[in-house]
């Protein structure tokens, strides 16, 4: 019998066939080719020698295992099925709004993908938790069959035949979703995705997005399967032989292959491939890093004996809540476009894709990584498939690659006044690409507490072998594995994968104790038997089936559950589960919550059955002979190297680099200091010998553009890893879940070197904080750590606590500084949450730290810290911190993040020397400075003036005024805010550091491409602030609103001055509520302003914030509230040629008395339109008083006591429009005439 394993990728389809003789045959075809309708079927036809046009006889086929990018490509290209969304009333837009954050904080458009569904109907039904723990649910409003039937018919009338059904709390209360499903089946819908069946887990937004993906993609997959089968005789009997790879690394029959589980189908095969090809063959087991470099991107993953499964991830900017292998993707692949901007060599994120592809593909494409490899000799056209040109019969065009790379070299040499050869530039781009690909590997390992150096690097994908040695060297990995099928390892992995059945159901958030566990274990047994029965129906025996049972556990009050396997327990009691959960939680997050109750959220069973259909034969002995020679450009010089054919190399062969090995479907470059050994299966293992002497640490007078780009990646990687440590080890919702924190690296002068893209309002402010401490702290010693939050000390507002750690390198003064800033939920003051809307003095806003050594010479100053946190109680109507335990835990996490940052800086110095790192810190700042200077000079040309101004007003009438003066020759500029109004009696006063953050944020957005965010951005800018004004208030002024409200207005004024975009919602819409036992704080999104060429995005956080919002189901389970509505406020964006984005409506009903506060803006003055665009709608704050049946309007800032059943309604502002609306109307009214003129 023939057994096929197929990976249908976007560009190539890879096939491994086990022939009846037991031998393996390999094929590689273009996935799209006019010569055949379907690549996998064409491969099967060729192997079976079926004449073209005749049905394929599948009687000799034992199995067809397939991974496919059909679902992935349909998602990326938005070519899925027309889909309707059926959702609880009040939540029609919640799937689109998502978590309200924007993917790229410096994208002035705040771009976000459009929803996958085409229409939505809201169902009159509502289920709510009966208690705050969510143990039981009650029907607040019963569902009406008549209502459901009418609304589903309205979708059918629009020819919508695929449905996504998502009801609030449907994961636990199934009846209403099942009723909708039954009626939809009766009405004849083709596909119905029901949320509790797609993924029965809490969180309405990710479950809803996953359900929409399922409805959008599954019909597309079914259509593909039908087309695939259509070329076979007796095709109706083929289904039993077809298995598809799912995102979790398991095979499943056709009837169980759904869209939501198919998005990572291809990459999952690769993980399974290196698990079998590398990990299982290591004599001494070591964890492996998978490095899969393809055409448009690179996937990295980790395998340490078992699959690392995650339950939430993102694909094509869509959140998926399904079991999936933990695979991280970076936009750097063979097709990544090379460019030179801002003094930096840049690789990606743009890709040449399959069409036109790289320049060498003979379709007029741009210079790419593939072209650089071709120019360097790492790809040999003579040994590459001849599938290019108009007749698809030509080899790669090296001359085209040389031409495009030479143009880039000319640009670099002209800008940098250097004389680098085209080969040096090409190698430089490869080094930058390698560093870009190292970043996700570091995040997958170092940022999670794993040491890269203990891993084996398993490289695969078409380009993986060309970069393997350089990647491993950068990560200090000493062993590389390269399978003989490295170019098609996903297909090999699919051949080795088990058939998987999984079942999961919610447990109802039961407390972990013996009584509840007894019930849960009985349900686990029931699920396990059901999984076994499903596999037995497929004719598997008990001895072929392996079961694994899981419970998904979490601490009360947290949203970070962990899936715990019963296989890891010492026993089966509740204490065994608790012990394992505690140990795993501590390992994952760096701490555990003592005496906190543990909840059981879900139970899950995974059953695997292995078929053993494929196996590899061992390599025979023979002679070690090369097949030729070539020239490679390596380490700055041309070197002659031997070429070997892997297929000809006998087991036990050893080759010392440099060399090239052709692996059939890929090429391996063996760099100097690496030695290859061929194992018994004919696979490559490379080992590094530490004989190499670093030759690059020479005296440099000017920056090397290659190293400048590499250091840019390394500095950013340090800040990113700090952020992951902080998120992992923090305890509070604000830091761990809302991601309200920032991390950064600073030079010895306190100047910003690198800031990870976290919260924009922190960007320039932390530099002010670090530089203040240089004066405040006369003597710092190793082991000192400083805590600060005062506005005069570079603080933004008091809840933002900044931790600053000096880093010493063989000197008696700091060589660097590491800092992070995190928003604490409470630090005392007038109100819970430390965001009092009516404060008039900073003393009412919480604990104050100007320059406090929280760690002195390595000793944590806990008693003094606690005293400071309780000090607000000395002021009238104030208390000290209301949550001391969380404060201490989060501060420990912030200190730990800085420790990690310091370690990474020292590792960088060990690699490149102290002097060199310092130089490149300065040069990376100079590169950013040049980009800003160019921006400012170009702005003079664009605007037609050297001096321009703008002003806007806060709701209380306070004016913010800006005059910008730019020297058109040098790019030096003055941002003069001195005409702004005096500080206010209230809390809208913005610390000086906030204005610095707003200006640096605006400049970075206006540049429009990726440049390092650092002190250099402000070097050409002089910011003038007048003491005693709203932007430079006195020392005791209240400032809590300045950080979250005035900061947004400053951005609006800067962008208005530069004529860059209409105003966005201009407000973070702060909403707090609580009582003596709980407290809650959120910021709510609004509409983004439109600009030249783009429409404003609706319902998104803009400018100075980017925090996430709590999921509706989590909110209702945790707090005594009902979220009645969260929807887009249609029509609130300003009209114009390009319309402003709409704000949102958010209605929260209270189930018991609570205190609440609102801190908002743009309730009086509307967000401005630009260039004739109309203003966006102002916001509204309303209260529905249940006791008297009255709707009342609330002021922008207020504090109030709520009664049971009262409801707060926030209508957030829309963004301003851009351009005269008449222009758009006229353009739309004459499309045919314009079309005719074009034809003539």
UniProtKB/TrEMBL annotation:
Boundaries of every Hydantoinase B/oxoprolinase domain copy: 704-1220
Basic and acidic residues bias (residue ranges): 1222-1231
Hydantoinase/oxoprolinase N-terminal domain location: 4-186
GO molecular function: 5-oxoprolinase (ATP-hydrolyzing) activity
GO BP field: glutathione metabolic process
Chain residue ranges for the region called Disordered: 1209-1240
Single GO cellular component term: cytosol
Domain Acetophenone carboxylase-like C-terminal residues, every copy: 522-682
Classification via Pfam families: Hydant_A_C, Hydant_A_N, Hydantoinase_A, Hydantoinase_B
PANTHER family per UniProt: 5-OXOPROLINASE (PTHR11365:SF2), 5-OXOPROLINASE RELATED (PTHR11365)
Entry similarity comment: Belongs to the oxoprolinase family.
UniProt-recorded name of the protein: 5-oxoprolinase
Annotated organism of origin: Oikopleura dioica
Lineage, top ranks: Eukaryota, Metazoa, Chordata, Tunicata, Appendicularia
């Amino acid at each position: 019998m023939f057994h096929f394993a197929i990976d249908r990728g976007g560009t190539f389809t890879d096939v491994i066939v086990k022939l009846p003789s037991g031998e393996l045959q390999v094929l590689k075809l273009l996935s799209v080719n006019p010569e055949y309708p379907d690549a996998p079927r064409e491969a099967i036809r060729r192997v079976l020698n079926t004449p073209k046009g005749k049905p394929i006889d599948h009687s000799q086929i034992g199995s067809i295992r397939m991974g496919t990018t059909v679902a992935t490509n349909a998602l990326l290209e938005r070519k899925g099925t027309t889909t309707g969304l059926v959702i609880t009333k009040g939540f029609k837009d919640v799937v689109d709004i998502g978590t309200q954050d924007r993917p790229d904080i410096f994208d002035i458009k705040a771009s976000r993908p459009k929803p996958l569904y085409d229409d939505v109907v809201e169902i009159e039904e509502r289920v709510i938790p009966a208690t705050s723990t969510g143990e039981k649910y009650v029907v607040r409003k019963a569902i009406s069959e008549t209502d459901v039937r009418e609304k589903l018919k309205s979708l059918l009338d629009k020819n919508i035949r695929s449905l996504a059904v998502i009801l609030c709390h449907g994961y636990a209360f199934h009846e209403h979703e099942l009723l909708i499903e039954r009626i939809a089946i009766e009405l004849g819908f083709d596909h119905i995705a029901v949320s509790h069946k797609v993924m029965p887990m809490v969180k309405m937004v990710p479950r809803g997005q996953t359900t929409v993906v399922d409805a959008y993609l599954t019909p597309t997959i079914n259509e593909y399967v039908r087309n695939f089968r259509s070329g076979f005789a007796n095709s109706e009997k083929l289904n039993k032989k077809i298995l598809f790879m799912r995102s979790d690394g398991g095979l499943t029959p056709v009837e169980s292959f759904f869209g939501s589980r198919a998005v990572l189908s291809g990459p999952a095969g690769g993980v399974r491939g290196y698990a079998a090809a590398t990990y299982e063959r290591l004599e001494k087991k070591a964890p492996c890093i998978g490095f899969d470099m393809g055409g448009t991107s690179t996937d990295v993953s980790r395998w340490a004996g078992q699959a690392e499964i995650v339950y939430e991830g993102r694909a094509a900017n869509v959140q998926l809540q399904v079991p999936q292998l933990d695979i991280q993707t970076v936009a750097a692949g063979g097709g990544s476009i090379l460019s030179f901007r801002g003094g930096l060599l840049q690789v990606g994120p743009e890709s040449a894709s399959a069409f036109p592809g790289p320049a060498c593909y003979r379709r007029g494409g741009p210079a790419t990584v593939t072209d650089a490899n071709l120019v360097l000799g790492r790809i040999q056209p003579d040994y590459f498939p001849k599938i290019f040109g108009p007749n698809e019969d030509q080899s790669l065009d090296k001359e085209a690659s040389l031409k495009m790379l030479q143009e880039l070299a000319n640009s670099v040499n002209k800008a940098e006044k250097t004389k680098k050869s085209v080969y040096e530039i090409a190698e430089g781009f490869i080094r930058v690409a390698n560093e870009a690909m190292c970043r996700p590997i570091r995040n997958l390992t170092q940022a999670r507490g794993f040491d890269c150096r203990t891993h084996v690097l398993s490289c695969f994908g078409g380009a993986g072998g060309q970069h393997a040695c350089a990647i491993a060297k950068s990560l200090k990995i000493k062993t590389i594995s390269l399978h003989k099928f490295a170019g098609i390892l996903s297909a090999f992995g699919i051949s080795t994968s088990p058939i998987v059945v999984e079942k999961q159901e919610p447990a109802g958030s039961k407390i972990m104790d013996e009584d509840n566990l007894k019930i849960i274990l009985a349900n686990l047994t029931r699920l396990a038997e059901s999984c076994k029965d499903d596999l037995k129906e497929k004719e598997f025996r008990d001895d072929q089936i392996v079961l694994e049972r899981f419970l998904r556990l979490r601490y009360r009050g947290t949203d970070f559950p962990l899936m715990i396997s019963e296989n890891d327990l010492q026993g089966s009691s509740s204490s065994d589960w608790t012990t394992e959960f505690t140990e795993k939680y501590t390992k994952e997050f760096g701490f555990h919550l003592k005496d906190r109750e543990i909840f059981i959220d879900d139970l899950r069973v995974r059953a695997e059955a292995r078929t053993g259909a494929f196996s590899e034969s061992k390599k025979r002995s023979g002679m070690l002979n090369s097949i030729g020679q070539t020239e490679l450009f390596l380490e700055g010089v041309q070197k002659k190297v031997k070429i070997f054919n892997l297929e000809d190399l006998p087991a036990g062969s050893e080759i010392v680099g440099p060399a090239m090995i052709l692996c059939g479907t890929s090429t391996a470059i063996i760099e100097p200091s690496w030695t290859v050994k061929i194992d018994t299966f004919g696979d490559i293992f490379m080992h590094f010998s530490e004989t190499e002497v670093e030759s690059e640490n020479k005296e440099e007078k000017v920056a090397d553009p290659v190293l400048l780009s590499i250091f840019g990646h390394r500095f950013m990687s340090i800040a990113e890893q700090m952020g992951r440590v902080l998120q992992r080890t923090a305890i509070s919702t604000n830091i761990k879940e809302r991601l309200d924190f920032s991390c950064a690296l600073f030079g010895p002068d306190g100047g910003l070197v690198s800031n990870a893209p976290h919260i924009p309002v922190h960007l320039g402010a932390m530099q002010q904080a670090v530089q203040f401490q240089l004066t405040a702290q006369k003597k710092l010693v190793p082991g000192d750590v400083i805590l600060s939050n005062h506005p005069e000390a570079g603080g933004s507002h008091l809840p933002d606590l900044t931790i600053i750690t000096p880093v010493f390198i063989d000197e008696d003064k700091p060589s660097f500084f590491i800092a992070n800033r995190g928003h604490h939920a409470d630090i005392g003051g007038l109100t819970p949450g430390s965001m009092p809307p009516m404060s008039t003095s900073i003393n009412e806003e919480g604990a104050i730290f100007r320059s406090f050594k929280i760690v002195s010479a390595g000793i944590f100053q806990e008693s003094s810290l606690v005293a400071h946190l309780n000090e607000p109680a000395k002021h009238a109507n104030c208390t000290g911190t209301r949550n001391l335990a969380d404060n201490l835990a989060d501060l420990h996490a912030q200190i730990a993040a800085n420790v990690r940052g310091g370690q990474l800086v020292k590792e960088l110095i060990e690699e490149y020397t102290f002097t060199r790192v310092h130089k490149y810190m300065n040069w990376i700042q100079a590169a950013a400075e040049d980009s800003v200077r160019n921006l400012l000079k170009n702005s003079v040309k664009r605007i037609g003036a050297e001096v321009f101004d703008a002003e806007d007003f806060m709701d209380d009438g306070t004016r913010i005024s800006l005059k910008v003066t730019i020297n058109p020759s040098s790019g030096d500029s003055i941002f003069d805010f001195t005409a702004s109004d005096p500080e206010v009696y209230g809390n809208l006063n913005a610390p000086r550091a906030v204005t610095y953050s707003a200006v640096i944020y605006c400049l970075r957005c206006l540049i429009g491409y990726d440049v390092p965010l650092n002190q250099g951005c402000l070097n050409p800018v002089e910011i003038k602030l007048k003491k005693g004004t709203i932007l430079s208030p006195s020392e005791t002024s209240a400032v809590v609103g300045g950080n979250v409200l005035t900061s947004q207005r400053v951005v609006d004024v800067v962008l208005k001055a530069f004529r860059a975009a209409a105003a966005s919602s201009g407000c973070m819409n702060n909403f707090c509520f609580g009582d003596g036992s709980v407290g809650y704080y959120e910021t709510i999104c609004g509409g983004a302003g439109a600009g030249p060429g783009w429409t404003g995005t609706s319902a998104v956080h803009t400018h100075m914030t980017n925090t996430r919002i709590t999921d509706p189901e989590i909110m209702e389970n945790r707090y005594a509230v009902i979220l009645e509505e969260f929807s887009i406020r249609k029509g609130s964006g300003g009209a114009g040629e390009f319309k402003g984005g709409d704000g949102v409506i958010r209605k929260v009903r209270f189930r018991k008395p609570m205190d609440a506060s609102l801190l908002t803006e743009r309730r009086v003055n509307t967000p401005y339109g630009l260039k004739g665009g109309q203003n966006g709608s102002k916001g509204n704050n309303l209260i529905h008083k249940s006791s008297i049946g009255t709707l009342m309007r609330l002021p922008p800032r207020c504090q109030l006591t709520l009664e049971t059943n009262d409801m707060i309604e926030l209508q957030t502002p829309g963004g301003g429009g851009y351009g005269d609306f008449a222009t758009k109307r006229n353009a739309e009214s004459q499309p045919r005439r314009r079309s005719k003129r074009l034809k003539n």
